[in-house]
Amino acid sequence: MGRANKVVLAYSGGVDTSVCIPYLKQEWGVKEVITLAADLGQGSDMEPVREKALKSGALESLVINATESFVKDYAFPAIQANALYESRYPLSTALARPLIAKLLVEAAEKYGADAVAHGCTGKGNDQVRFDVSIAALNPNLKVLTPAREWGMSREETIAYGEQFGIPSPVKKSSPYSIDENLLGRAVEAGILEDPWIEAPEDVYTMTTAIANTPNEPEYVEIGFEKGIPVSINGETPDAIALITQLNEMAGKHGVGRLDMIENRLVGIKSREIYETPAMLLLIDAHRDLESLTLTADVAQYKRGIEQTYTQLVYNGLWYSPLKDALDAFVLSTQERVTGTVRVKLFKGTHSVVGRKSSHSLYTPDLATYGKEDVFDHQAAKGFVYVWGLPTRVWAETGRK
Question: Are residues 126 and 266 in contact, defined by beta-carbon separation less than 8 angstroms?
Answer without folding.
Answer: no
